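Posting for a labmate who doesn't have an account.
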Amino acid sequence: MSGATLAAQTVVRLAALALIVLGVLIWTGVSDALIPFHILVGLVLVVALWTLAILAALAQTRTGVAALAVLWGLVVILLGITQQRLVPGGAHWTIQVLHLLVGLAAVAMAELLAGGIRRGRPRPAGG
């Protein structure tokens, strides 16, 4: 399971880096043509997050974070595909910042899950 954990964690990290770079390019107006690629990489990140959630559940560690990560992945997807329609006009930057924060929270959850999987299931006291 550690190989799958490392692979999923690496995918999350690389996707996060790519998403930040793409997001900055999109936000600064360099190219809106990058948006479909940004969406695709975002979906890859969510699938890797869900993979870590499943691995954590199977390892019986961080099960609360795993459950939250599954729901959070849905939030990431829903916000990502609807953000252009939310708060149009001059205040749209607030949605863009929210989108960034939601994505960073997904990465943080992935890191928590991967760390929990690597440490293994907590042992009962005295045993």
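Reply:
Got it, the structure tokens are right above this. The radius of gyration is 16 Å.
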